[in-house]
Description:
The structure holds 2 protein chains of 2 kinds.
Chain A: E1 6-16, E2 21-30, E3 33-38, E4 48-51, E5 56-59, E6 61-66, H1 79-88, E7 91-96, H2 107-120, E8 124-129, H3 143-149, E9 153-154, H4 164-174, E10 181-183, E11 196-197, H5 200-205, E12 209-210, H6 213-229, E13 233-235, H7 241-253, E14 257-261, H8 263-267, H9 289-301, E15 306-307, H10 336-345, H11 352-359, H12 361-366, E16 382-392, E17 411-421, E18 424-427
Parallel strand pairs in A: 1-4, 1-5, 6-7, 7-8, 8-9, 10-13, 11-12, 13-14, 14-15
Antiparallel strand pairs in A: 1-2, 2-3, 5-16, 16-17, 17-18
Chain B: H1 16-29, E1 47-52, H2 58-69, E2 73-78, H3 90-98, E3 104-109, H4 114-121, E4 125-131, H5 137-151, E5 158-162, H6 169-180, E6 184-188, E7 204-206, H7 209-213, E8 218-221, H8 227-230, H9 237-244, H10 248-254, E9 260-262, H11 275-278, H12 285-304
Parallel strand pairs in B: 1-2, 1-3, 3-4, 5-6, 5-8, 6-7, 8-9
Helix pairs in contact in B: 1-5, 1-12, 2-12, 5-6, 5-12
Amino acid sequence: xxxxxxxxxxxxxxxxxxxxVDAIADVLIEGTTIKRVGPKLAAPEGVETVDATGKVxxxxxxxxxxxxREPGFEYKETVLTGTRxxxxxxxxxxxxxxxxxxxxxxxxxxxxxxxxxxTEGRVRVYAIGAVTRGLRGEELAELAELAExxxxxxxxxxxxxxxxxxxxxxxxxxxxFGTPVISHAEDQHLSxxxxxxxxxxxxxxxxxxxxxVAEDVMVARDILLAELTGAHVHIAHLSTAGAVRLVRxxxxxxVRVTAEVTPHHLTLxxxxxxxxxxxxxxxxxxxxxxxxxxxxxxxxxxxxxCVATDHAPHALxxxxxxxxxxxxGVVGLETxxxxxxxxxxxxxxxxxxxxxxRMSRGPAHLLNLPGGSLAPGAxxxxxxxxxxxxxxxxxxxFHSKSRNTPFAGWTLRGGPWKTIVSGKxxxx
Amino acid sequence: MAWTxxxxxxxxxxxxxxxxxxxxxxxxxxxxxxxxxKKVPALRGKTIVNLFYxxxxxTRTSFEIxxxxxxxxxxxxxxxxxxxxxxxxxxxxxxNIAAMSPDVxxxxxxxxxxxxxxxxxxxxxxxxxxxxxxEHPTQALxxxxxxxxxxxHFDGLHVAIVGDIAHSRVARSNxxxxxxxxxxxxxxxxxxxxxPYAQELGxxxxxxxEDAIRDVDVIMMLRLQQERMTAGLIPSxxxxxxxxxxxxxxxxVHARPDVLIMHPGPVNRGVELSPEVADGPYSxxxxxxxxxxxxxxxxxxxxxxxxGAGENA
Lengths: 428, 313
């Protein structure tokens, strides 16, 4: 992320929701930061140019929910392969979750991850620290030191902190740092043994299901704790209509709650599980059509603040066997933009500027990250989209180490064209 | 009609004509059991592997006898369940078996979807001999054959399936099969043992045994697994058998005199069925077992016989 120079992106449709821009314009990056946005900018001498005619130029996309798996699970993904996948998918920054081995519950692990990111990362990497030691849900991790080391949020993602008192204390303790807690909202008693959503499909297939309320009761709890403590709680991978309603009501009351949604929960339902393909198994599970519709509506109206992929790489051996024994999670970095452009924007379910906002300004704003804007002085992070590009999802061509996508074989129109980090083209 | 499927995975996949063909084929092979020399050459030179990841005595034996009476070479292979951490995975074991060129693999597994996954991964025909709580199609077929022989027809019959519906592959396969053949199905049990959205399977739901067994033609009692208590689904075996155990007294008061009592076995005597009912005049439980061999002969014949084995999954 060095090599300062100048880059002029010419004649694209610039969509910059943070600054209410949606017009044909040029974007000039000087060094590592945005210099200017405007029509027909004069090209400084020696500037490198990109002809973006017919393309969409937006602030670099940010994914705040990624599992880079390093350290500990390098056979699934590494900082190098995960950030390559991110760049290929149009993301210029990501946050990596704490459920590594060892867990990112102390400064040395955060340092390790961020150091790897500096030397091997293709995009910006931010670390999310664990809330509790070893993700065990028993005692607080050294949150202040983690924050000082650079953690931008705290989460035991993958597990829910079931002890409400401990979670309350985590919210209070981190208040001065301005770092939200990110809640994996799942009552682990209600979801015990579950491998999919509880509904008519789970009944037919004989697979134990987790009811939607396993999520709803925890979202309700965390909203109430946020109200009690004044802390900012961010709900990861919102997946139910009930949770949408709870977040909407809480926001209307002024509670500091935000939420994200994954591309797979927006575009797939529990029906996809019928083929017993473990690439349709994740936590939270694919829900009903009614839930997916509520999520799309909530993403459009701003109840849900951002899209996040929950990119969760797993080796083939962890996904090819029995459905109930398979690992939870799917990769998402390299399919998110195309899936959402094709399945939400093209049919008119979500305006393009809204999608851009939910993937750039939205995530930057809620974690106080640089970027998400093309204002002068902002990081020179830009994603250029090609809305006409046609592709068929082929996991064999992923940059990620893992192939566990539910979208294999999907034919999609629209996708990332170029990814630019600090003024440097990292993909496309 | 001709049989066109490569696999038998689920009753949900089949239409009424296919189910009838399976039952008719089984019925035509039933008399082999009465011969002095119980062997026909229909599957000579064919290899059938019983690949059982979950222990089972009667189903495995039933498939084994069925294959042998049809002159196939039958090999039993007991594999441990999924153990990616220790030893061979489920898929690897199956691929190793498949490399020895069997014509049919009969698979039993504790995980739903196991048979469907093998059908995707292996080149041979797959018969689902029970996959978790999903389906057990040959059990449903033998139940249907038993009912047809006793009642003479299916149309308009009313069946009560009683007990742990939520965890029962037998219930699921029978619900699909019975509904497709024009029967009415009531499922009954404590609400914690009835799966969510059961009505959407096209069945009625009853929460009292007395309501469920009134005026039905067939009562199918399911086995109660001990682990349902530790999972907090029922308070005690004692309470369950008091309210849900079928006794002669309850039958006399609430059921029709010509009702059939079925059970997929093995029976928990004194829990879901009193011994007097299990061995009594209403019971067709041993009939079911006998029909099981005929049904499995029919299935193996249609899948592996020289005629009829198609390529369609």
